[in-house]
Amino acid sequence: MSELSVNHLLGIKYLNNDDIKLIFETADHFKEVINRPIKKVPSLRDITIANLFFENSTRTKLSFELAEKRLSADVINFSASQSSVKKGETLIDTVNNILSMKVDMVVMRHPNPGASVFLSNHVNASIINAGDGAHEHPTQALLDSYSIRERLGSVRGKKVVIVGDILHSRVALSNIFALKTQGAQVMVCGPKTLIPKYIDKLGVTVETNLKKALNWCDVANMLRVQNERMSVSYFPSAREYTQQYGVNMKLLKSLDKEITIMHPGPINRGVEITSEVADSDQAIILDQVQNGVAIRMAVIYLLASKIKQ
Fold first, then answer.
1. Residues 261, 144: one domain?
2. Residue 2 within any structural domain of the chain
3. Does residue 7 fall inside a structural domain?
4. At residue 73, what are phi and psi to the nearest 5 degrees?
5. Same structural domain for residues 16 and 130?
6. Which parts of the sequence belong to the Aspartate/ornithine carbamoyltransferase Asp/Orn-binding domain (predicted)?
7. What burial class does residue 198 get, using C-beta atoms within 10 Å of its C-beta: 0-12 exposed, 13-18 middle, 19+ buried?
8. What confidence score (pLDDT) does residue 233 get?
9. 120 and 175 both lie in a single domain
10. Tell me: the pLDDT tens digits for 31-77?
11. Total number of domains in the chain
12. Does 150 share its domain with 280?
C-alpha cells in the first residue's frame, strides 16, 4: 500500500492496520533524515499548514511545528487564547478566514470532542486532529506504538497496560484503538472512579491492582492525572493516588521481569512515576519525543501527497 485510506487524520478509529504500517515505514525514513547533519527535506515546499491550537499545548505544538519545518512547508501558527475566538468568533469563521489565505492543511487541537470531524465536513483542507477534548489524540497513539515497535520489535502480541486517569484521557482512547488494531493485548489500570463505564466494550481488561497489572504487561504507559479536566475529586489525595498507582524503582525491581515504561508527558514527577524511573534505562520517554517528530512528518507527508493528486 502506497497511500493512506483516509484524507484526514481525525482519529485512530478511522485507520486500518495497513495505514498504520505505512505511517511507520514512512516514519522510519524520516527518522533517518532527522539524524542527518542537514535535517530538512524539500518534500512540502508548496504546502501551507496552519496550526490551530484552541487549547494550551507545548510538546505537541512544538513537535508538529518542527515536523512541518523539517518538510519545508510554510507554517502559520494560530493560538486561540490571543485571538478573535475570545471575542465570540465561531470555529468555522476562524477557519474560513485562515483558509482564505490558501491553506492546504490544518492541524487542530480543540477542547470539544469531534471538533476536527466537524471541521473536515465544512472546510476544503486536510485536517489533522492534534487532540479533541477527552476524545482522541491520534498522533500520540501512533508515536507510542511506533516507540513500542522500535523497542520490542513489534506491537503484535505484546501486553500493554495503560495506567492512571483513563476517564479524561484522549491518549488512552487513541492508544486502545491503535494497539488493538495492531494485535496487542490491552489492559487499563487505575482507581475505579477514573475508569469509564463503557471501557469493556473496547475489548480491554480492567485491573485495579497496579502490581498485578505490571506483572502481566510488557509495557506500561503511565498517564498523568488531568486535574484541569476534573470538576469534582475522583480520589482522596495525590499522596494516596501515588501510594496506589505511582511507579517507583522499588516496585519495578520487585516484578517478575523487566518492563518498558512510557509516558506521553507532561510528567508529574513523584506522582505517577518517580524521577528515578523516568530517567532510567527502562523508560523510553525521550525516545517517544524524538519519534513524535518522525511520526508527525510521516502523517503530514502522506496526507499532503493526497492533496497534490
1. yes
2. no
3. no
4. -80, 160
5. yes
6. 157-302
7. exposed
8. 60
9. no
10. 999 999 988 999 999 999 999 998 888 889 999 999 999 999 999 99
11. 2
12. yes
Tell me which DSSP letter residue 48 carries: E
pLDDT in tens, 229-286: 444 465 657 788 899 999 999 999 999 899 999 999 888 899 999 999 999 999 999 9
CA distance 90 to 166: 30
What percent of the chain is predicted at pLDDT more than 90? 73
Give the Cα separation of 303 and 128 in Å (integer).
9
266 is in an annotated binding site: yes
Q: Assess whether 104 and 153 both reside in one domain.
A: no
CA atoms of 214 and 212, how far apart (whole Å): 6
- Spatial contact of 48 and 73, defined as CB atoms under 8 Å apart: yes
Average pLDDT, the chain: 91
| 190 annotated ligand-binding residue | no
What's the number of CA atoms in the CB half-sphere (13 Å) around residue 242?
11
Beta-bridge partner residues of 185: 159
For 200-243, what is each residue's pLDDT tens digit? 899 999 999 999 999 999 999 999 876 544 444 656 577 888 99
In a domain, 6, yes or no: no
Q: Is 36 annotated as a binding residue?
A: no
Q: Taking Cα atoms as reference points, which of 66, 68, 53, 17 lies closest to residue 131?
A: 53
The helix/strand count (H/E) of the chain reads as 11, 9
Strands (E), 5-113: 48-53, 74-79, 105-110
pLDDT for res 228: 47
Q: Is 137 annotated as a binding residue?
A: yes
The answer to whether 87 is a known ligand-binding residue is: yes
Is residue 17 located within the same domain as residue 127? yes
Q: Do 181 and 274 belong to one domain?
A: yes
Residue 59 is labelled as binding a ligand: yes
- Domain that includes residue 279, residue range: 138-284
Q: Is there a binding annotation on residue 265? A: yes
